[in-house]
Amino acid sequence: MQQGTLMRKVKSKSWKKQRYFKLQEDCMTIWYQSKRTGKTESAFSISDVETVREGHQSEVLQSLAEEFPPERCFTIVFYGRRGNLDLIAGSAEEAQCWIQGLRQLIEPPKFFSLASALGPRTWIRDWFQKADKNKDGRMNFKEVQHLLKMMNVDMNEDHALRLFQAADKSESGTLEGEEFVLFYKALTQREEVLSLFQDFSEDGKKLTLLELVDFLQQEQLESEGTEELAMELIDKYEPSETAKARHVLSADGFLMYLCSPEGSIFNPRHQALWQDMTQPLCHYFISSSHNTYLIEDQIRGQSSIEGYIRALKRGCRCLEVDCWDGPNGEPMVYHGHTFTSKIPFREVVSTLGKYAFQVGHPFPGCWVLRGPCSHPQRQAQSTAMLGITVLDESGMRRCPCCPPLTGSSSNISLLGAGELKHKILLKGKKIGRLEDTLDGPGDEVPEVSDEDNGAEAEEEKRRAKVVTRRGSALQKDRESLAQALSDCIVYCKSVAFQGFQEARSHSRPSEISSFAEAKARKLIREAGNEFVRHNAWQLTRIYPSGMRTDSSNYSPQEMWNVGCQIVALNFQTAGAEMDLCDGLFSQNGRCGYVLKPSFMRDEGTLFNPSDPSSWESPGPVTLTIQVISGQQLPKVANSKAEAVIDPLVRVEIHGVPGDQAHQETKYIENNGFNPRWDETLQFQIHVPELALVRFVVEDYDKTSRNDFVGQFTLAFANIKPGYRHIHLLSKDGTSIPPSSLFVHIRITE
What we know:
Recoverin, domain 1, 22 helices, 32 strands, cytoplasm, phosphatidylinositol-4,5-bisphosphate phospholipase C activity, EF-hand-dom_pair, calcium
């Protein structure tokens, strides 16, 4: 066996160890071993790899830029919270070989069908490799029994043996190649789907074009162009060319359709950009993160540009950059007065400039600039920011940090997200007023924001007093040092909140106030309707309590209920709160902007989330969910090899207080492979425009807390009624194919 490719595995500037890397014959696993000892250190599956980045795209590789050229460097990025793998190849050719090879292997299939052998066989091959213990390319019955345990199946031994013998066409006592495919197909037979198919099929073997149209109209509630849609589905999912020619759909094709994006609970039309993007920024919910640079806790956690990359790739549009004075006149980004590590500000800005619009949408980003930097270092900040460029729609490279200033501050507020494409909006304190930026410099002392960074606020107060004492000459000098940075702050000038009436009388739409979660809850309790009206014309940012040193999150739903646009969460912490965030922003092309309901964009609205009857609503809707079955549910993390889960499904409604509810099915004992529930859950929802629906699968435990298995969350507005599959996500929000739920959805008024 060849040793593999010798490359340097890098953890820090001083930690560079040579390791042999090799792709195993299954093309699914990569192992690496020490050059010195020859001992295998670790291995990882191709399915765990999210992407591969070329060049110096990590702090570690950037620190080695002078020693190793970018052509030899690359970073393997894993799903979830597993740390990245920084590698340095022996040559540029070797690096490209690995980069291109890995990218081809991790390219996902367009869809996965549980009717194996009809679609891509990646998952079948993966299971085979896991079960083939002696690696002889065959699988005996003992290995089959081990496979069933791995697949979460507690099957009667006699039944398993019958399936095994039926697939063993060669009568060799082992399964290989197509025999294993036959076994897998028998194992994944979907009786509930076959029964549904036969309800609409006259001969039980096929759906004619008219029968498929009937199914689409009666059950899937498709109302327009159903015959054309039926033809498209047959052409796309029917595996038999003969059946395609006859315009009929087989049972296999029917299953493939139900497992496809068209058969998903998520309305495929809402996955693309489908909302009006010309409204003012305050009319949108905006995906926002708190202390984006942190990838762990708030006290000793690591600061990393990876935090920014991950957030941006997740659709986040509002990021936080906490700047403090650093050595050699270079500002550093970290959580002040803590033990978190530090990153040079210029590296953060360079990374943000590269990834800000790379996810595939051009809508504006917002950088929340904080920290009591000295004025020379603020000048360094502005130099770094004004030095970045991005490609605009005309193909020109321009600096995104200073949007065009035309007209007055009153019409600036009317610019919508669509008019600010490829722009970066800076939120921070500003010298003077917006009118001064438009018409000439002013002499106003910066206002103190109510940000959560107490040290910053105290520093600004101290400096304001110094400025007052030393007179206008020093004031002019102070302004000149930070003027370039201040001029970039146009749309999101930080101001202290003095009350809703004061804000309405004296604030401008181009200003923004920030609230800690506790202050926001107090305002919601005491003046819910006023808060909604305020958010109809001005931006509001909410941030977590300073007590959340573990980087935990508050519920964003209560903030969205009053129309708060920038609800900042700790993106590094998985849980229900981030599930809600991902669920809301998974629509509209994942652009990070979701248009608020019309009644929350009206400055005279009567809506109060605590009292939905205070406004004229269309009336409640009834959501009926029949939870039918589950398919290939994953094992609980760190469980024993022989353990099989007892799954149950909980459905949660998140919305205004009167709509908050949850119900759950019974648990199915010892079956995570194909559990059947056939239970109906029903909810009344009074404000569906604000509701999110979260499906959670748990492993029941009568003696302790249930264990998380998978979840999927989406906005009520994005639900597609009918027979639908729900493709589950992990705790980190990543896909875990082929795990899914099969449900029937009805929505009535």
